[in-house]
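Structure tokens please, single chain.
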Amino acid sequence: MSQLLGIIQRLQAMQEAKDTGEVQQRRFEVNGKTLCQVKFFPQNGTFELEVYDGQKHANKYQFDDLDIAAIEIFDIVQEGSNS
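Here you go.
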């Protein structure tokens, strides 16, 4: 549960930095391997989650809810930890 809380806190920090007007981004890694990257777009308040597979190909997903984005990131990190 503390891992999910850490993800939520990172996403909240991205939202709080919206006054800069810049797109905020964070990477989530397990054992040095980047599993996904999330960007926050302050102009429309959405998160874009870019999920990498083993060959660094990416699928992108849009979220307008912090909690849903956090749960998706948590699932990705958990899968990465178990493989």
